[in-house]
Design a protein that fits this description.
This protein is α/β, with parallel strands linked by helices. The protein has a single domain, classed as LmbE-like (Rossmann fold, 3-Layer(aba) Sandwich). Strands 5-2-1-6-7-9-8 form a seven-stranded mixed sheet, with helices on both faces. A hairpin with a 6-residue loop joins strand 3 and strand 4. The longest helix is centred in the first third of the chain and has 15 residues. The N and C termini lie close together (11 Å).
């Protein structure tokens, strides 16, 4: 079993809300056990979307992020590439710059934190920003002598409720399940509620219904009421 109370996790989120859709319940479990959780958001900006309001602003989303960070008691968070010139355009940013931001770009980075666990987006995601950040994280977490660079022994990719529509012919079965007791599931839903500008109608995967449906399905696969599932990219024992 993982000793969560003694471990530090770094979550890489392309945008504010991805960390909650993908691993909000796991973050709550981690913090409840006494572990440390940091989040590196890659970008945020004004977004035109398919919602009742039709758009959300960077300021609105960062205010929501601050509320989420307080609710889940993040140990720290940072924004790597602020501004509309980067938002939804991370695939156009040189990969070297993305890797640098994750690897050693600031106080919330692999080199600064030397985390035990890294959680990143899937490289099979249809969202071009997510694919770019997933690939950059794999590069940043590459093997190397621990004397000189961070080498997280556990590297995971999280899933989002819409991943049944993806860029791969098929996705492998998750290799790691984190079961969610009611308090952790409630914390995930509560954090999503704070991201009100991003929640969609119940017909969309990016909704409370979508999140609950996926958590129930993953729970059925591991003998629990609810769970979050992850692909294991590296596990060193």
């Amino acid at each position: 079993m993982l000793e969560l109370e003694s471990m530090t996790a770094l979550v890489i989120a392309p945008h504010p809300d991805d960390e909650i859709f993908g691993c909000g319940g796991t973050i709550h479990r981690w913090k409840s056990a006494g572990g440390k959780v940091y989040v590196l958001y890659m970008t945020v900006g004004t977004t035109v979307d398919f919602s009742d309001s039709g758009r959300s602003t960077a300021e609105q989303r960062m205010d929501e992020t601050a509320q989420v960070a307080r609710l889940l008691d993040f140990d720290g968070y940072a924004l790597a590439f602020p501004g509309d010139q980067y938002h939804l355009r991370l695939d156009a940013v040189p990969q070297r710059d993305l890797v640098h931001a994750i690897e050693r770009g600031g106080d919330i980075s692999l080199q600064a934190l030397r985390p035990d666990v890294v959680l990143a987006p899937s490289i099979a995601d249809y969202n071009q920003d997510h694919r770019a950040i997933g690939l950059a994280t794999m590069t940043a977490a590459r093997p190397g002598p621990t004397k000189y660079k961070s080498f997280p022994p556990l590297v995971l990719t999280y899933e989002l409720p819409y991943h049944q529509w993806n860029t791969a012919e098929s996705l492998p079965m998750p290799g790691l399940f984190v079961t969610l007791e009611p308090p952790s599931m409630a914390a995930k839903i509560g954090a999503l509620a704070l991201y009100g500008s991003q929640l969609k109608s119940p017909e969309s995967p990016l909704s409370v219904r979508g999140v609950e449906t996926l958590a129930t399905y993953r729970g059925l696969q591991c003998g629990a009421a609810a769970a979050e599932a992850f692909q294991i990219k590296r596990l060193v024992l």
